[in-house]
Write a structure and sequence with these properties.
about 400 residues; about 0% strand; mainly alpha
């Protein structure tokens, strides 16, 4: 069963076997902004903490509140808005997102910042819940893997290039400027979406698949558990990469540490786009194993700054294609795009949990304990990935 089982027919361009690049790149940019905005504090924690008059652990919770907003609202909002045109939903999400970031660009109140970060997280949840399915419905079935990869690549590329750029901008112009830039680009994207994207119809009442049914589908629960472990481990490290870099003696070079992560993630994205359809299982096994290995290397980063760079590169390579891999696995197992809301919810609960756990570990034991806890989480996560060979992560040709 394919991911388009319950979808409507793709537009005429897709039937001619072409990728609608303008529309797919608009979706890419929406995902890029969503993850960039979520993670901007990771590169600006010291500056934000000083400006807001709070500790770095507290400032890190501006990521947690964003993720919690997405986790709490993705499913109910997508149920309420499921019959709306997909472009209409995207534009509504972007409006919310732009307004929240505009306020973030001017406030020095930590409480108000948390409130508007929650609002921005609501908009991001709507964006992420629809990217993969929207992209899949713009193309013919044999191009869906490539279309989803393009649309979902905005997430790791934001981590790869956008976050270092945001960190540099924040260092030069102040952390407020980074949020202001996100708001400005989001406003331009509103126009782009209207021009480049068709307003693909939402689900009819008879097309809705209850989430209880999706959860009972063989393989879906395993995918969600693996995704949860993966994202908790990743976000513990990512949110507090600044303190980790300081502990390794590279606190003044955090933007270059993030760039190394980004370059490795870009390589991973390219490989995922090229091989996701025929080799999905191999790639997901590689991703979980490599991410855990990267965390293990980071655990020794205090011995040499070189180990920090090596660990970050390995970790970035493991993470880069993960968004496409998990979305593809979920859609194939469930046979419906509605699984994306579940994935977004679980991922963002995991991101929030990773931020909370990392903050507690940082405050209680110091930065260098964080990668070791990430390794401990990735061991059972990798084992579960290997065991999900029948329904969760099978070789794709077996499902045809």
């Amino acid at each position: 069963m394919t991911a388009t089982t319950t979808d409507q027919k793709a537009p005429g361009r897709a039937e001619r076997g072409k990728l609608p690049l303008a529309g797919l790149l608009a979706l890419f940019t929406a995902g890029f902004l969503g993850i960039l905005n979520e993670t901007i504090p990771a590169g600006l924690l010291p500056e934000m903490a000083r400006g807001l008059g709070v500790s770095e652990s507290a400032a890190g919770q501006s990521i947690t509140i964003y993720a919690l907003a997405t986790a709490l609202t993705a499913i109910p909002l997508n149920v309420v808005l499921r019959t709306w045109g997909r472009r209409t939903v995207l534009v509504l999400a972007l409006l919310t997102f732009v307004a929240a970031n505009a306020v973030s660009a001017f406030t020095d109140s930590f409480v108000l910042l948390l409130v508007v970060r929650f609002v921005a997280g609501v908009g991001a949840g709507l964006i992420w819940s629809n990217l993969g399915g929207y992209a899949a419905r713009l193309v013919a079935p044999h191009l869906q893997g490539k279309a989803i990869t393009i649309a979902m690549a905005g997430t790791p590329i934001a981590l790869a290039l956008g976050l270092p750029a945001g960190t540099i901008l924040g260092g030069v112009a102040g952390w407020h400027a980074a949020f202001g830039a996100v708001a400005a680009v989001g406003a331009l994207l509103l126009v782009w979406a209207f021009v480049a994207l068709p307003n693909v119809k939402g689900q009819g009442d008879g097309d809705h698949v209850p989430f209880r049914t999706i959860l009972r589908t063989p393989g879906v629960a395993v995918i969600l558990w693996v995704g949860a472990g993966f994202m908790v481990a990743h976000n513990m490290v990512y949110t507090y990469i600044g303190p980790l870099a300081i502990a390794a003696g590279l606190g003044d070079l955090i933007q270059w540490v993030l760039l190394v992560f980004g370059v490795a993630a870009l390589v991973s994205i390219w490989l995922t786009g090229a091989f996701v359809d025929p080799h999905h299982r191999k790639l997901i096994l590689l991703s979980t194993t490599v991410l855990g290995t990267g965390a293990l290397i980071l655990g020794f980063a205090t011995f040499s700054p070189v180990l920090l760079y090596v660990g970050v590169a390995v970790w970035g390579f493991g993470f880069g294609g993960s968004a496409t891999l998990f979305i593809t696995a979920g859609m194939r197992a469930a046979g419906t795009n509605a699984v994306q809301s579940l994935l977004v919810t679980v991922f963002n609960i995991s991101i929030a949990l990773g931020g909370i756990m990392g903050g507690l570990l940082l405050a209680g034991f110091g930065a260098m304990i964080i990668p070791w806890v990430a390794v401990a989480i990735m061991i059972p996560t990798s084992i579960m990935t290997f065991q999900g060979r029948r329904h969760a992560f099978p070789r794709w040709p077996a499902l045809l």
